[in-house]
Amino acid sequence: MKKGSARTHRYCVSIHPTPILFIVGLIAMWPILPALGGTQHPPVSFGAKHMSVHHSKTVVGPSVQIDEQGIIYAAWVEEDKDTRTILFARSEMPGGPLGTPVPVNRPSETPYYRQESPAVAVRGGEIFVTWSMTHPRITPDKPFSGELRLSRSIDGGRSFAPSTLVNDDEQVIQHAFDAVHVAPDGAVHLAWIDGREGKKEPGTFVARSTDHGRTITKNFKVDDNTCVCCRTAVVSSSDAVYVAWRKIFDGNVRETVVATSTDGGETFSSPVVVGHDQWVYQACPHRPASLGVDRAGRLYVVWYTEGADETPAIYLAYSDDRGNSFSEKKQLNRSKGTFPDHPQLAVDPVGRVVVIWEEQSPVRREIVMSHSVDRGQSFSVPFKLNEKNGQTPTIAVNQHGTVVMGWKEHAMPAHRLMVQTMQLPAVSVAEAEIVSHGP
Questions:
Q1: Which helix (H) or strand (E) holds 120?
Q2: Which 3 state secondary structure label does DSSP give 251?
Q3: Which residues lie closer than 8 Å to 310 by C-beta, 6 or more apart?
Q4: N- to C-terminal Cα distance for the chain?
Q5: Residues 397, 12 contacting (CB under 8 angstroms)
């Protein structure tokens, strides 16, 4: 893709919500059901939907973040003809719309041809984007080979410095399905799937940067037998770093697991199984977990599984002991006759939780979200967000409970990237429980 973005980012349209249409849409699209757990949830307020139209061959993404002022950040991949580009855009005002995108990678850096949505983390004016670059020495017999790169901006995403190599081996193998997170102390934590040891199944690796992304520490293997394309996730609290992935056990049992570091990411515990799903699957399902943590240290995990009975479902569980054990899992999807998929999670400091995912039917792909104001004890009825067929939902929240949700819609002859904000209600339940547990 050429440097000019006029072709790929033709225009942006803002769609403002109308209260009457909001209520009618809710009644028409979803049954009136009590919240999961029986709790009545205060209403949320939605911002305008902002749509950008992209006349490219393919668009992958977006990934989104939101800062404390409500500024939205997004990254995605576009392919036009034979050129793939990582693009980044930010809004100039709280709530959107997104501005003109800028390229993240250099023309000489070609993103991996199966690149997922780039991972994004924001800390003040610094932006961190991870992505996999086609390996310079790729060969036909090693078509999935790539280098993991970290790109950094120090001007709020208006420009990006040359990328930094993350993986410290020189092998022509896979380094992909990455995650990035900035901890409270400013350390940049990275996780990814890595095949450097040449085993049948790859491993889960981590690294970090303590100098704002300029240099990367020695890579550390957390575990073996990682599901080859279920993306990693990473998050931190004030005293722990957590990594999640899907692990393969004997008999092709595939479980979501979490490992914990209490020394700033230098070492990690053995992985702990979250849901004990006993899902037997002969291949990689390509469906990652998602993590969040509140101010009291409660760790939340959302994941997809089909379990022992092969029923597709979205579940949430949490841990109050630094990932040593997890609560009973709670099923979030409610719709009958659809296929729930690709869940993503966001948690604010007081434990307000929002989960977004796909609901697929033979003719439609919907994007739905559900929220909790009581630290995951109960959830609202799922609410539909998209208009056209939607996919790849993504979500983030700031400290004030302002949420940004993003997804892609299919609308011939172009692709549409959608972003929308939502303000969570000010409630006392989550805050009171946080206070009672202490920071």
A1: strand 119-123
A2: helix
A3: 279
A4: 47
A5: no
Residue 92's contacts (CB-CB under 8 Å, 6 or more residues apart) are: 71, 99
DSSP string, 400-433: TSEEEEEEEEEETTEEEEEEEEEEPP--SHHHHH
Which parts of the chain have pLDDT scores under 70?
1-40, 428-439
Q: Residue 194: its pLDDT value, please? A: 96
State the pLDDT at residue 34: 43
- Eight-state DSSP code of residue 224: S
Contact 98, 72 (CB under 8 A): yes
pLDDT at residue 39, as a whole number:
57
pLDDT digits 0-9 by tens, 321-343: 999 999 999 999 998 889 999 99
pTM for the complete prediction?
A: 0.90
In this prediction, residue 133 carries a pLDDT of 93
Are the C-beta atoms of residues 51 and 76 closer than 8 Å to each other? no
Strand partners, 280: 253
Backbone angles phi, psi at 22, to 5 degrees: -60, -45
d(CA 416, CA 386): 11
* Integer Cα distance of 307 and 247 in angstroms: 14
CB 315 within 8 A of CB 332: yes
Residues whose CB is less than 8 angstroms from the CB of residue 116 and which lie 6 or more positions away in sequence, other chains included: 60, 77, 176, 177, 231
Taking phi first (over 0 means left), then psi (-120 to 50 degrees means alpha), and beta for anything else, what does residue 231 get?
A: beta
Nearest alpha-carbon partner for 301 in 250, 260, 253: 260
Rounded Cα–Cα distance for residues 79 and 8 (Å): 9
Which region holds residue 8: left if phi is over 0, alpha if psi is between -120 and 50, else beta?
A: alpha
CATH class of 12-437: mainly beta
pLDDT at 41: 72
Q: Please list the residues that pair with 74 across neighbouring strands.
A: 64, 89
Look at residue 172 and give its three-state secondary structure. Answer: coil
Tell me how crowded residue 227 is: count the other CB atoms within 10 A of its CB.
Answer: 25
Q: For the chain, give every domain's residue range.
A: 12-437
Contact between 151 and 131 (Cβ < 8 Å): yes
Do 133 and 150 meet the contact criterion of CB atoms below 8 Å apart?
A: no
> Pick from 120, 146, 124: which is nearest to 133 by CA?
146
- What is the C-alpha R_g of the chain? 20
Burial (CB < 10 A; 0-12, 13-18, 19+), residue 123, is middle
Q: For residues 265 and 267, give the distance between their C-alpha atoms in angstroms, rounded to a whole number.
A: 6
C-beta of residue 228 within 8 angstroms of C-beta of residue 168: no
